Amino acid sequence: MKTSALLPLFICLLLSPRLMATEFLKPARVEKPPVIDGVLDDDVWKQAQELSVFKTFIPDFGKDLSETTSAWMAYDEAHIYFAFRCHDRSPERIKATMASRDTIMTDDFVCVNLDSFNDQQALYAFYVNPLGIQGDSRYASNNEDFSADFVWSSAGRLLDDGYAVEIAIPFKSIRYAGRERVEMAVFIERYISRTTEHGSFPEMDPAKGYAFLSQMRPLELRDVRRSTLVELLPSVVYDLKHEQEEGSLRRSRSQGELGVTGKLGLSSKLVLDLAWNPDFSQVESDAGQVDANLRSDLYFTEKRPFFLEGSEIFQLAGSSPFMYAVYTRRIIDPLLGFKLSGKLDGRNTLAAVFAVDEAADDPLHAASGADNAAFTILRYKRALSGDGYLGAFYTGREQGSDYNRVAGLDGQLRLSPSKMLSLHGFASFTDNPLTPRTEGLALDAYFTHSTRDLDLGTGAFLIDRGFASESGYLTRGGLAGVECMVIPMIYPKSGPLRRIRPRFAGGAYRDLEYRMNEGLARIGVDLLLPGNANLTLEGWAASEVFLGQRFDVSAWRIYGSSWLNKKLYLYLAFRRGNLVRYVAEPFQGFGDTVSGVFRWLPHEKLDWELRLTYADLFARAGGAKVYDYAILRNKLSFQANKYLFFRGVVEYNDYRCKLLTDLLLSFTYIPGTVIQLGYGSLYEKTEWEEGEYRPGDRFLEMKRGLFFKASYLWRL
Fold this sequence. Notes:
Layout: H1 3-15, E1 28-29, H2 43-47, E2 50-51, E3 55-58, E4 69-75, E5 79-87, E6 109-115, E7 122-128, E8 134-140, E9 143-145, E10 153-159, E11 162-170, E12 181-192, E13 197-201, E14 217-222, E15 230-245, E16 248-265, E17 270-276, E18 322-324, E19 334-343, E20 348-357, E21 373-383, E22 389-399, E23 402-416, E24 419-431, E25 438-450, E26 454-463, E27 473-474, E28 479-488, E29 499-511, E30 516-529, E31 533-546, E32 549-552, E33 555-563, E34 568-581, E35 587-603, E36 606-619, E37 625-639, E38 644-653, E39 658-670, E40 673-689, E41 692-711, E42 714-715
Parallel strand pairs: 1-4
Antiparallel strand pairs: 2-4, 3-13, 4-5, 5-11, 6-7, 6-12, 7-8, 8-9, 10-11, 12-13, 12-14, 15-16, 15-41, 15-42, 16-17, 17-19, 18-27, 19-20, 20-21, 21-22, 22-23, 23-24, 24-25, 25-26, 26-28, 28-29, 29-30, 30-31, 31-32, 31-33, 33-34, 34-35, 35-36, 36-37, 37-38, 38-39, 39-40, 40-41
């Protein structure tokens, strides 16, 4: 068949209306709302249709969930409500902790996944454990982001034969098409921790794998009140800081700041955020990572509220070293911010961010002649058939005469119920003292096939030597490659193994700067066991090019985790193999990497976590030790109730000879309405002697900080 004959068919595939189920769920429309207390005695639930056919999708598809589950839905003009009755023949084995938000994913839980536009592009996920503790996320482009926090209500209650949960989600907290007849789609889950079972309504199709967005059940709502979202979030922050100066700890800063963030719903689909001197503080210091012998920057998750609204819109399709087109941790301390995010209409989505960063003191831009950097980010998406879309990005960082600008397209195309093609193409334009007037391309195409019995992925990418992204996250430039991965699924009918996933992967790469080849051949197996336990073993033969030399980076590793019982959790990982010493004169090395986490919950409100990270490096020639690096992090959390917690952290970095303490008392009524009091200190093994600081045997307090924060979310 001629290519010209295939073109119209391909265009029809992209632009055709999405295929939708014709049978809509119709939740009960009620006048009197239920009381969200975990007691299912409200008249609402007597009127609502019961949903009780829950089928598993983990560890296998289509099995009856081992414990009976019922769910109900209802709504009024301002909220949509859900209730769950989760029966359990062994209620004493239900895992439920009084924990902070988004830390319940190893508990028993229920989850409401809500595609608020019924367009298969993104969903809200609302998780609740048996004690009513919340977790929430946004899912888009096959990625789930737990950094999002929404305003909603939940309650849970343990019973003699299971537990019950009630949920109320305000329509103001989500984006939806505000019409007389509102279409959404829903997918509800129950997770049983001790059996590692995920069950759902509706049942997932094994021929479609884990394509959640295309397997949700549409629902119809009528007479939802149309109201304009108006939020103001004033905040006050006070910092008192001390630093070492000439052998003594002296006050370096004592400052109080006022800030305000506002949110205006231009429609039920589109939201405008404005911020002046907003609070961009983080609740807790980032956990320490091994920062020796790095080829790329460390990655830290975003925790700051201003950047979380609509963050799922910035997900990038494809799979390459250009991992994120937008990485907001590059914006360190904005003076002001502007953000627009949401839907223009049923198929078109827009997001825009503008921020002026006061902490733009990167040495790369020291000669730019400007103290502040301006970030401009634009994102557009158009929905296609199913969960496919086409999109465009622009990101820019401007500081004086220096700039980095990136523009491009991305998309994912649903070729069949089990097949997806993801791709992106970007061009960058950079001018600064190190890279004057440099240009480059980043191209990627990746194909996936996912069903119950087989996962397959294959793709190709190219990152030019001159490609740079100062608003995104790139692990390595100047590289091209092709990759393939095959994962068959095995489901034992008996025994402790719930699922076996052998993995076979390979890749061929080209270092574009030195015109040298690299290769990878990997084999491994993932084992899923009861008790929320898993074990992975893998090994690989691989080579890597660095500064014109090819090195052997073959290695093997084993890692696994398990809740040994309701109170004890253990995670262990060990890697042994070859390494590269990333210095001006690199050499072949070898070494071990070990990480472990031990958690003990002596009480449902108390959580002790001990985390160890260790890495070493030896020279292959002669076996001389280059370094060993150890970080020990000790965290104790006391959750008095769902609103109030105390957390203490002590972290020791043996390689840097530093000791960090971090104490936090936090009261969070709802996301935004917060009171926090924190204290932190940094100690180093040093001493002041003869007018200078020198390495010492004892710890000296180098920095000390006290902060207070209060904010209040006012919503009209």
